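can u do me a favor
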């Protein structure tokens, strides 16, 4: 009788482990330097399964450099460690928007062992649970055709080294088939990465001349690439679906229309929209900046792409809402993917300025994954 109970208990635990969904949360320490700063000691409320600190770049010879050195090493890395109290895994991101593809290409082609050794030393020294390699992107943006093969070898050797020190390996990847087919070996990713984060937003690879949805769920004539088309393309490579996390954007994209009367999806634009008063990046708004503007805008729902965009005079804004996010969360469950990743916590409404709670994107994901629906 006892053995039968044990077997049933093990089955129950195994079953529920397979249902567990990742909620990976990126944090950019630039947020600590803004006029309204967000520091790591305020992130625990998000209750993410993994927190990823955006903070490392490369030197030409394979050494690691702290991107925001004056803050990261003095306060950021140390304060970030307290998030482990919720049994969360803590990751450090290498690359991302702060590192060029050319630098990655040269280092991984010429100094792979130096970089691998430096990564292992860094993870132990600063007590991180693993690393997210975010090279944007192998064999493009200044990379070389040999990047794919070099990156494949690098990941295999890095995995072997990380196994020795019990650390995680995450790889963040392009959503565009035209990019990722020449950039990654999917079998290598499946075998050696613990998670694969697909950046399923901002699909435009060229200079933007028209309004485009931030992250359409499905494609149409104005949005040829979508979350669905990207994931379908990735799954067609036979990559392990349980390792895929869909990365969702917590911010809003803004454009300035060429004509205020021509404001539909795909309308001509003059350039990026007005920057936020705090984040101060043209064409981008944090959720806490956008929600104070939203009531003055007309919103339009596009049923085909399952998106909502906002217009006012010559201003055009695309962002996720609870409804559009639920479509993506449902997609994760329906396709038994690994989970989602949120880019980034500091662009979300972390201070509850919009009145929907702190870190609402993370809260919605946890609520939905725990219940399997939008109901509490």
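np, heres the sequence
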């Amino acid at each position: 009788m006892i053995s039968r109970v044990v077997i049933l208990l093990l089955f129950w635990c195994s079953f529920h482990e397979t249902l567990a969904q990742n909620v990976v949360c990126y944090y950019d320490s630039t947020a600590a330097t803004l006029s309204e700063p967000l520091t790591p000691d305020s992130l625990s409320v998000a209750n993410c399964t993994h927190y990823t600190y955006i903070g490392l770049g490369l030197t030409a010879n394979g050494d690691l450099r702290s991107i925001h050195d004056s803050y990261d090493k003095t306060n950021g890395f140390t304060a970030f460690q307290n998030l482990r109290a919720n049994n969360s895994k803590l990751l450090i991101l290498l690359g991302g928007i702060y590192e060029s593809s050319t630098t990655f290409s040269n280092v991984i082609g010429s100094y792979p062992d130096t970089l691998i050794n430096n990564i292992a030393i860094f993870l132990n020294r600063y007590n991180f649970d693993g690393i997210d390699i975010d090279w944007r992107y192998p064999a493009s943006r200044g990379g070389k055709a040999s990047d794919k093969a070099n990156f494949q070898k690098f990941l295999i050797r890095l995995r072997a080294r990380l196994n020795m020190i019990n650390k995680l390996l995450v790889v963040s990847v392009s959503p565009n088939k035209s990019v990722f087919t020449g950039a990654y070996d999917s079998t290598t990713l499946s075998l050696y990465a613990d998670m694969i984060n697909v950046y399923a937003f901002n699909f435009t690879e060229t200079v933007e001349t028209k309004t485009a949805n931030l992250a359409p769920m499905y494609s149409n004539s104005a949005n040829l690439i979508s979350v669905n088309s990207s994931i379908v393309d990735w799954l067609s490579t036979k990559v392990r679906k349980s390792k895929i996390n869909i990365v969702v954007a917590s911010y809003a994209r803004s454009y300035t229309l060429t004509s205020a009367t021509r404001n539909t999806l795909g309308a001509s634009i003059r350039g990026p929209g007005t920057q936020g008063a705090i984040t101060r990046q043209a064409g981008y708004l944090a959720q806490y900046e956008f929600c104070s503007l939203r009531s003055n805008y007309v919103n339009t729902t596009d049923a085909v792409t399952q998106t909502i965009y906002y217009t006012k005079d010559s201003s055009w804004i695309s962002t996720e809402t609870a409804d559009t996010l639920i479509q993506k969360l449902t997609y994760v469950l329906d396709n038994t993917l690994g989970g989602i990743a949120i880019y980034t916590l500091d662009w979300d409404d972390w201070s509850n300025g919009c009145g929907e709670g702190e870190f609402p994107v993370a809260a919605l994901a946890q609520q939905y994954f725990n219940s399997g629906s939008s109901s509490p």
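Confidence is low (pLDDT under 50) at residues 1-19. hope that helps!!
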